[in-house]
């Protein structure tokens, strides 16, 4: 939580991302019939979306951690 008692948006985003990854890992661990596979193109698209989301989150965290030039 932030100082004002409201949740920190970056921490909320990180927690939601962790939960999504956990759900994906759980889904992948379930046994599947051989003919019940996910097309590679869909997996690649999901992977690209996850990579983009992680990059955005890393940038936001880095920007938040950097001191503002205006405060100097």
> What would you report as the Rg, rounded to the nearest angstrom?
18 Å
Main sheet attributes: strand count, strand direction, barrel closure: none
User: What's the pLDDT, averaged over the residues?
Assistant: 78
Give the number of helices.
Answer: 2
Structural class: mainly alpha
What sort of overall outline do the alpha carbons produce when their principal axes are compared? elongated
β-strand percent reads under 5%
Low-confidence stretches: none
Ends distance: 26 Å
Helix and strand succession?
HH
Q: How many β-strand stretches?
A: 0
- Share in helix: 55-70%
If you had to describe this structure to a student in words, what would you say it looks like?
- This protein is mainly α and 72 residues long.
- The chain is built from 2 helices and no strands.
